[in-house]
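Protein modeling request. Please complete all fields; requests missing the sequence field cannot be processed.
Requester role: graduate student
Desired output: 3D structure, token encoding
Chains: 1
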Amino acid sequence: MIDVNTNGEVWVFAEQHGGNLEDTGLELLSKGAELADKLGVKLAALLLGDNCTTLADKLAHHGADKVYLAQHQLLENYQTNSYAKVIYDLIHKYEPQIVLYGATPCGRDLAPRIASAAKAGLTADCTDLQIGDHKISKTDKVYKNLLFQIRPAFGGNIIATIINYDRWPQMATVREGVMPMPEPDTKRKAEVVTESVEVAPDDLPLEILDEHIQEKKVNLKASRIIVAGGAGVGSKANFKLIWDLAHSLGGAPAGTRAAVDLGFIDHDHQVGQTGTTVRPSLYIAVGISGAIQHQAGMSESKKIVAVNNDPEAPIFNIAHYKIVGDLNDVVPKMIKAIREKA
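Delivered output (342 residues):
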């Protein structure tokens, strides 16, 4: 267990592959800066790899006050053992009070290993992070400035707030797209702390011969207009209406987890708690009931249009414009009207 250090920094793991920073780490710098300001401490990024010094500037532009740079040829490719060893050693050396990771495949693999080594807690898939005080009712003792780790629980039926007051660092993984990407400030500079790394071939149980990264078929986070369909669309053939409406608006097609599980559309297009979080200018929800798991991924859209034949569907509670009717009748009329005005 690392000693509780109320003056410790806020750290963000800056995940990179092949010399390219993942968006999740940059998004976390936005929330990390907010937390660090509240605590009156510095925000630092953890950058591991080989020949990746130039990435430190981008981290500074997105809010990092300090970058801990650990470079070694054996860190060129991510492996759990080597990355966990290096980060744990840094945590033990500097004693940060908060460490955040993206809930990516890499982050979900790395964070639990570090939490186990540090004998600290870890909250997975957070949708919000705040700083607040917590009172223990039995003793009336108040713990100030704790990290409130907020995430859906019990299948999304409740929102749980999790705290860790005695075993630090406080650690959490955060889903991609949950935090808005900060606008880069190219004038910002960060202190770069170059760390010596002790990694031996024995620390890497695997040898990576080749690496293939499959790009996503769609970038929902960058789409200004999204048309999403749910299980209520009825079939994969009927889902063509979603694609046609999206294309007529110059937008991207998407789907709920139910639609993905039914094979109507693939996972790259999934919006929701276990998919992508989006904030488009226009979100059209077709045949979507509006379960809290889906709302978690799209409720911050600027304008929401819902089409559903059930007037009591939960999606209407957050929709700005509500259309009660059969999507097979409504959507073709929408497409026809849009194309006539084009």
